Amino acid sequence: MEKADQGLINTFLKNAYQKYGRRYxxxxxxxxxxxxxxxxxxxxxxxxxxxxxxxxxxxxSTCLGPNIMAAARRQISRMTGRLDDLFWIGExxxxxxxxxxxxxxxxxxxxxxxxxTFKTFYNGFLQWNLDVPGSLxxxxxxxxxxLRDALNFGKQEHFGLITSCESLACKIAKPDFRGEICPLAxxxxxxxxxxxxxxxxxxxxxxxxxxxxxxxxxxxxxxHFDRPQRIAKRRLVQAAQAPSERLWVGPMGTPHxxxxxxxxAAMARxxxxxxxxxxxxxxxxxxERIVSLTEATFAETLRKxxxxxxxxxxxxxxxxxxxxxELERLEEALAETSVLVAQCDVSREARLAQIYSAWRTPLxxxxxxxxxx
Length: 373
What we know:
The chain is an alpha/beta fold. The chain has 3 domains: 2-157, no CATH class; 213-241; 285-366, Glutaredoxin (3-Layer(aba) Sandwich), CATH 3.40.30.10. The protein contains 10 helices and 11 strands. It has helices at 9-20, 52-56, 64-80, 115-127, 193-217, 219-241, 255-282, 298-303, 318-333, 350-355; strands at 2-3, 7-8, 26-29, 87-92, 141-144, 150-152, 155-157, 291-293, 307-313, 339-345, 363-366. It has a 4-stranded mixed sheet with strand order 8-10-9-11. It has a 3-stranded parallel sheet with strand order 3-4-5, with helices on one face. The longest helix is centred in the C-terminal third of the chain and has 28 residues, at 255-282. The two termini are 54 Å apart. Residues 243-253 and 273-286 have low confidence and may be disordered. Pfam families: Thioredoxin (PF00085). The chain crosses the membrane at residues 193-216. It comes from Effrenium voratum.
C-alpha cells in the first residue's frame, strides 16, 4: 500500500528493513473474521454454512487464514528478494458473541459468531503447525488474540477466551470441566541473613524507642525538667507576698538584679543587630558618589550622556548591596570619561521598572539612543 493520503506502507517497510536488516520482523494482523470476501449462502439472508468452513480451517489449500499469510510472505519476498525473512502473525482470533465492529454480511449469520464456531477456530489454531499453502515458508511466530473480551476503539469485541478478568472459566470449557488445583510450594529454606539482619535492626530500634520513653517519663528526669518551672512559680509567689518589692530594687549582686541585667543585655544585642541590618539595607541607596535617577530626571540625565550604565536596585535586595561597591569602583574608574554610572530605586519608580524590564535586566547599558535590549 502506497497512498500519500492514507499511508506510505511500502516506504516504511523498506526503510525499516534497510536499517535493521535481518533483525526486522515483518508483522501482520490476520483476521478472517472481518474478511469482506465471505458470503452468505445463495438466496439466504442469514445462513453462511457453505462459505464458513474455508474461513475457520487451518489445513488445506483453500483455508482463508493460511492463504492470507502466504500472500503476505510473497509480498515480503518481492520487497527483500528473500524467502527466509522474519515473519510474524501479530494477531489472529475469532469473536463470540458477535463483535460490534463486524460490518460484513456475516453480521446477519448467527452461526458465524457462535460459540461452536469459536471453539472450532481455536482448536484448529492449537493443532496448526504454522504451514501455509504451496512451498512458501510459513510465519515464524503467531500470537492468538486474545485472553479476555475488551473494547477496541470504543467498540465491544469478544475475542477473549474468557469474558473478563473476574471470569473463573474459559468460554469453551466443558460444563463438567474442573481445573487442577496446584498446591503452593512450601518454603524449604529459612530467611536469609539479610532478612534476619533487618529484623534485628527493627527490634533494636523498637527497644531503644521504648527505653527512651521510659527514661523521659521517669520521676528523676521529670524532676530535672520541672525545676525551672518550680523556681519561676516560687518567685511569683514571693513577689505576690511582697508587692512593694520590685525586681530592680536591691543590691547589685542579687539574683533578681543579675537576671534582669542579663535580659536587658540580650535585648540590647538584638536591637543593635536589627539596627545594623536596617542601616545596611538603606545603605544600598545611600551612595552619594553614584547618581540616583527618578522618573522626572531619568530621561534628561541620560540624554546628556553619550554612554551610561544604569543599575536598577531595591533597598531590600542583598545582591544590590553586594553590587554597590563594585559600581562605586566602576564610577571611580570611569570618572575621567563620558560614561555615567547611575542607579534607580525600582521600589519607588515602578513605572520605569516596567518600561525597561528592570526585573529581567537589573543592569542596563545606555548607548545614547536608548537602553540596549
